[in-house]
Amino acid sequence: MLPAVVKLAWRATSSLSTSKCTHEATLCLRLTGSSFYDSYTDFALEGWGQSFHFCRYSRGREPMSYAIARHEHYIAYKLGLEEGMTVLDVGCGVGGPAKEIAAFVGCKVVALNLNEYQLMHGRKLAQKEGVGEDVNLPFPDNTFDAIYAIEATVHAPSLEAVYAEIARVLKPGGRFAVSEWVMTDVFDESVPAHTAIRNGIERGNGIASLRTAAVAQAAFEKSFNVHLIEDLALRKDPLPWWYVCSGDTQFAKTWGDWGRVFRMTAAGRVMLDVVVRGLEFTTVARKGSARMVRELVKGGDCIGEGGRKGVFTPMFLMIGEKADGKLHA
């Protein structure tokens, strides 16, 4: 059994504006796609596990869960997490990365999310594993030793504002790591194929606006002294990070991998649509699930194409130190 080191923080509404959050001295991540994620969560838990993010496959063909855990360990390592630290996970999903990092490092992770439906699932899963307790907001200034966000702040209406709030609750000299969804330097807004990829990713994933890497970096540098900036998608791995969106069965190893890849094939899409329609008709799945899944599949196509063309990355890693602290390697 894992040590009881994961705490869940939540706020009952996801409609607070950034300015109001700042006024209340509350760390705010406004999920513009909150209702979208209510439906998405059920399907993600079945097909993706408890960690809703992409990862590298540096060892090639292996179970997805292994690669995802290694990705989370890498972020914890580069962030410099140590045993006994109090760490904040911004946009925690159902708490998969928080539990993995807490167990890996031996630190206490406070997992923050503004989506009540995901937190409900997170609480149930944490209770089954003997971890988890609720905490109250707001967080005072200089609360956390370190903070990370894995593919979550893309939903914030302003990266500058959310990064500034993160810096506020980070202790002086503390580090923040973010794995950001961005359009890369290869992206050219004048190329219709590139803008179609961006629009498809936004629509299929409930995102208001995907920023470029340059915009995200500029926002990050306003609140943090940069320690590391790297697009992990550029690593020459034997298996591409976007393989789950490809529909190419050559990448599958385990039965779970086959399921994830097959559903993106032509036959898999038809079967998935029929199954979800049936679940929706019998009220097992919530109304609108079939339409949501179709949008996810289209968004997955655009993610895969964006990965192939190198115009999109979900793992633009930025690590920095609170600007009023001294940067140390």
The average pLDDT is: 79
CATH superfamily of the domain at 6-185 and 208-235 and 311-322: Vaccinia Virus protein VP39
Structural class: alpha/beta
What would you say the CATH architecture of the domain at 6-185 and 208-235 and 311-322 is? Answer: 3-Layer(aba) Sandwich
* Overall body shape: globular
Say what the CATH topology of the domain at 6-185 and 208-235 and 311-322 is.
Answer: Rossmann fold
Poorly predicted sequence stretches spanning 5 or more consecutive residues: 10-33, 325-329
Could you explain how this protein is built, in words?
This protein has 329 residues and is an alpha/beta fold. The chain has a domain at 6-185 and 208-235 and 311-322: Rossmann fold. 42% of the residues lie in helices and 18% in strands. It has helices at residues 18-23, 34-47, 64-79, 96-105, 116-128, 159-169, 192-204, 213-221, 255-262, 266-281, 289-309; strands at residues 6-10, 86-90, 108-113, 134-135, 144-150, 170-183, 224-231, 312-322. Strands 4-1-3-2-5-6-8-7 form an 8-stranded mixed sheet, with helices on both faces. β2 (86-90), α4 and β3 (108-113) form a beta-alpha-beta unit. The chain starts with 5 loop residues before the first strand and ends in a 7-residue tail after the last strand. It comes from Massariosphaeria phaeospora.
Short description:
The chain is α/β, with parallel strands linked by helices and 329 residues long. It has 11 helices and 8 strands.
How is the topology of this model organized?
Layout: E1 6-10, H1 18-23, H2 34-47, H3 64-79, E2 86-90, H4 96-105, E3 108-113, H5 116-128, E4 134-135, E5 144-150, H6 159-169, E6 170-183, H7 192-204, H8 213-221, E7 224-231, H9 255-262, H10 266-281, H11 289-309, E8 312-322
Parallel strand pairs: 1-3, 1-4, 2-3, 2-5, 5-6
Antiparallel strand pairs: 6-8, 7-8
Helix pairs in contact: 3-4, 7-11, 10-11
